[in-house]
Write a structure and sequence with these properties.
The structure holds two protein chains of two kinds. By secondary structure, chain A is mainly alpha-helical. Chain A contains eleven helices and two strands. Chain A has one domain (4-280): ABC transporter involved in vitamin B12 uptake, BtuC (Orthogonal Bundle), CATH 1.10.3470. In chain A, strands 1-2 form a two-stranded antiparallel ribbon. In chain A, α1 packs antiparallel against α10 (240-260). The radius of gyration of chain A is 19 Å and the shape is globular. In chain B, β3 (98-101), α5 (105-118) and β4 form a beta-alpha-beta unit. Chain B is an alpha/beta fold. Chain B folds into two domains: 11-145 and 290-372, 3-Layer(aba) Sandwich (Rossmann fold), CATH 3.40.50; 148-287 and 376-393, Response regulator (Rossmann fold). Chain B is globular. The chains are: A mainly alpha, B alpha/beta.
Chain lengths: 290, 408
């Protein structure tokens, strides 16, 4: 039986990583919740954000936490343009058309990254990257803690935006009743593009935080897309709180599976959790029944 | 000419062509098309690119050495076993006379099946899973140690290391990648270690992990909790980097990190990425003889092609990839033909004494396996992989335990 401090360390590490996963999945959940399109290029977009953080660090020595601002701004524009120019015409088309469109976008992004950055792994080397805080028996990785704090702050800002601003309320109105929103005169296509832009901002912030924890390579994207899916399905597709909760659950369950069973079984465990949720609560832990 | 006369003339012409000595001269004049399959992208990308440097310099050096013309047909299998299989098929369709590669046991097994089915010789540069040459294949040859040999040599060198540094570690935690190579190594270590009574340590925990893992924090926490004296590690490159960083984050400093025979810690990228954190890591691996004439030839060609690189960071990858192509070229020269059966038979008769790697001559046994390839204990010292054992090949003394080690 592992010692209590070992379990505590592993759980804390799982929670911190899970929060960053949660922010990434939050973007997917927001986009689906409003636009009703599943972004199959989600992980690839995060990989691009990670590359942008490495480029800014290499060129300007910009800390990834500072890089979040320009990267998020660029991603907002990219997300807005993608939705307005490419995805909006597909909104009323069958789901398989939307699926193929976004899979095509994902493949193009991966290959574009291979062409621009090559296959080599890249990372950033900030001063605090190998440091950790000692809190009694707990050893908390600094970079992981900062990344998790950034994820929580960003998620809180999104919650506030959607709850308290007029634009946020308008977006929620579109999500609740597409036809009603159009009847009351909301510019639905603009709001959809705005939502996709905001989802892309989530991904950008998560990517900048994640680059402190893992090295980036172009093939990383599909595994993150899959992970984001698992998280939002566990948490509840379309639920913002569910995405964060799903992220933390996946992070902690993977960590504990690695500790108590075998590290190689980490992914197996998160998929096991997914099946369990699909069987017992198909709408996800915080999702609403259709 | 009547049909019957034409047929007779055709038969005579065919018979003449079959026995005509000039046909052999034609075959000699041909180029040998060598299909080189390596993982130049994906998680094995750095090592694949390093191996590729050995392949790239081979045609020039071999032309000078044997007068044989080679044409390389390069393929990247993207660190994916299924892709390795399809790349091998494609290279054969495109006319490769012989396949070389692939620095990965899983991929080697897949390519071996294709090569055997299609009857095309396949010379493995680096891949250690023993079963590859245990299948009775007629077209598969390996100039690299099997996992069993690597383990035996690696563990013997660990014994020599402890002796040379007068240390007696009692416990080790064994971490290994969970792929074909890692599992073969783990099996070998678990079988051989109990019989090595001169080794004073026992393994207190065995932790397998995904070679493509992005985060090894749980694995390192688990290893640290064993409080073992040293870390016995079978790794690849990317995971070795992640693991070393995680050890620093978790403030875990055992007596040392010792690989009983795996890539990763002597690779250039390990040094580039980790800087001083790469110091003192030890790899007991098949290595090259820096004093051999062949090494000097290859080193000159390597410097010319890669002026900013140092062969010492690529020695194993370049050396064994170059030698695999050399074996094919040497066989082609003797067979005087690109016929796959003749090439395979000539490879089986190989006896190359002038070579880069440590150990005896390159000679294949009945299974297509070269025996007697030597290993060295290579420690990272002053940011260079340095041979510290065996003593006759050593250029520095081993450092073990690492400076600053404190038993917790």
């Amino acid at each position: 039986m592992p010692a209590a401090d070992l379990v505590a360390n592993v759980v804390v590490s799982g929670i911190l990583t899970g929060l960053v996963y949660g922010l990434m999945a939050l973007g997917l959940s927001v986009i689906f919740g409003v636009v009703r399109v599943v972004n199959f290029a989600h992980g690839e977009m995060m990989t691009i954000a990670m590359y942008m953080a490495t480029v800014l660090f290499a060129a300007l020595k910009l800390d990834p936490f500072l890089a979040m601002l320009p990267v998020a701004a660029a991603f907002f524009v990219f997300g807005y343009a993608l939705q307005a120019g490419l995805i909006n015409p597909f909104i009323t088309r069958p789901e398989h058309s939307q699926f193929m469109l976004l899979v095509a976008v994902a493949i193009i992004l991966v290959n574009a990254m291979l062409m621009v950055f090559g296959p080599d792994a890249r990372n950033v080397q900030v001063d605090y990257q190998l440091e950790s805080f000692e809190l009694g028996p707990l050893l908390v990785d600094k970079a992981r803690l900062f990344a998790a704090i950034a994820a929580v702050v960003a998620a809180a800002a999104f919650f506030a935006f959607f709850r308290y601003t007029l634009t946020g309320k308008a977006i929620r109105a579109c999500a609740d009743n597409y036809l009603g929103a159009r009847i009351v005169g909301l510019n639905v296509k603009h709001l959809y593009a705005l939502t996709f832009g905001l989802g892309a901002v989530c991904v950008a912030i998560a990517g900048c935080a994640m680059v402190l924890l893992v090295d980036v390579t172009p093939p990383l994207g599909p595994s993150y897309t899959l992970l984001a899916f698992v998280i939002v399905i566990v948490g509840g597709l379309g639920s913002m709180g569910g995405a964060l909760l799903g992220g933390v659950l996946i992070g902690v369950s993977e960590a504990l599976a690695g500790l108590f069973i075998t590290p190689s079984a980490k992914s197996m465990f998160s998929f096991g959790l997914l099946i369990l949720v699909l069987l017992l609560r198909p709408q996800g832990l915080l999702g609403k029944r259709a | 000419m009547k049909r019957r006369q034409f047929n007779k003339a055709l038969a005579v012409a065919g018979a003449l062509a079959a026995v005509n000595p000039f046909a052999i001269v034609r075959a000699q004049a041909q180029k040998l098309k060598v299909g080189v399959i390596l993982p130049r992208s994906g998680y094995l990308g750095f090592i694949g690119q390093s191996c590729q440097k050995g392949a790239d310099l081979a045609p020039g050096v071999i032309k000078e050495l044997l007068g044989v013309e080679l044409e390389l047909m390069n393929a990247d299998f993207e660190s994916n076993v299924d892709t390795a299989r399809t790349r091998a098929e494609r290279l054969i369709q495109e006319g490769a006379h012989v396949l070389v590669g692939p620095f990965d046991s899983g991929a080697a097994s897949a390519i071996a099946q294709v090569a055997e089915q299609r009857g095309i010789p396949f010379v493995i540069n680096i891949a250690a899973a023993p079963q590859i040459t245990e299948q009775g294949y007629k077209f598969v040859f390996r100039n690299f140690q099997t996992a069993g040999d690597i383990v035996r040599n690696g563990l013997d060198l660990i014994g020599e290391l402890f002796q040379a540094t007068s240390t007696v570690p009692r416990t080790a935690v064994f971490m290994h990648v969970n792929d074909t190579f890692g599992q073969a190594m783990a099996k070998g270590i678990n079988a051989v270690l109990p019989r090595r009574t001169q080794l004073p340590f026992k393994i207190v925990d065995q932790i397998g992990y995904d070679p493509a893992a992005k985060d090894l924090s749980v694995e390192v926490s688990k290893a640290k909790a064993t409080n073992a004296d040293f870390l016995l590690l079978v790794c690849r490159l990317n995971d070795a980097i992640i693991l070393r960083r995680e050890m620093v984050k978790q403030r875990w400093q055992p007596m040392g990190i010792v690989s009983p025979g795996s890539p990763g810690m002597y690779e250039e990228q390990y040094f580039k990425t980790l800087g001083k954190l790469s110091e003192y890591s030890i790899s007991n691996v098949p290595w090259y003889n820096p004093k051999s004439n062949m090494t000097k030839r290859v080193e000159a060609a390597f410097k010319k092609a890669n002026p900013k690189d140092n062969l010492v960071f690529h020695g194993l990858n370049v050396g064994f990839t170059f030698e695999a192509i050399l074996i094919a070229a040497d066989a082609f020269k003797r067979a005087k033909s690109t016929d796959p059966k003749a090439l395979a038979e000539a490879i089986r008769q190989t006896n190359i004494t002038e070579k880069m790697s440590l150990g005896g001559p390159i000679k294949f046994n009945d299974k297509g396996q070269v025996e007697g390839i030597g290993s060295a204990c290579v420690q990272n010292l002053n940011l260079l992989p340095t041979v510290v054992l065996p003593q006759e090949a050593a250029t520095a003394k081993p450092v073990f335990p690492v400076p600053g080690y404190k038993k917790t």
